[in-house]
Amino acid sequence: QVQLVESGGGLVQAGGSLRLSCAASGRTFSSYAMGWFRQAPGKEREFVAAINWSGEDTHYADSVKGRFTISRDNAKNTVYLQMNSLKPEDTAVYYCAANKTPYNGDRYYTELRYDYWGQGTQVTVSS
């Protein structure tokens, strides 16, 4: 069993930056692909970014491409989401998720691809 704990959310003005962190328990973190998803009020949860076990393969939703960067530090059992040029439409609860395989695979953007989820961290971007 893997436990994921997100942190780093908060209130920021449009154009600002935040860095989210997701700390994972267990010794197998380096063998898991990881993802970030978000859910805005009244909307379904949506894919944001994914990263494979080594950090060499990453994917992004079109809405965040060029503004957000996913990365990981396997020595610290942590995955990050650096969010720059934030917009009010980025306001959501952000969740990290772990995929028990090392690779993103073809369906990295689907919730079913992931086996473990964190509790989420709120990001609010004011205009």
Characterize the structure shown.
The chain is an all-beta fold and 127 residues long. It has strands spanning 4-7, 10-13, 18-24, 33-39, 46-51, 58-60, 68-73, 78-83, 92-99, 116-117, 121-126. Strands 2, 4, 5, 6, 9, 10 and 11 form a seven-stranded mixed sheet that branches. A four-stranded antiparallel sheet has the order 1-3-8-7, with no helix packed on it. The radius of gyration is 13 Å and the shape is globular.
Helix content: under 10%
- What portion of residues belong to β-strands? over 45%
3D shape:
globular
| Secondary-structure element series | EEEEEEEEEEE
Structural class: mainly beta
CA-based gyration radius: 13 Å
Overall mean pLDDT score? Answer: 96
Number of helices: 0
User: Care to count the β-strands?
Assistant: 11
Distance between the termini: 40 Å
Taking the sheet with the most strands, its summary is: 7 strands, mixed
Unreliable residue stretches:
none
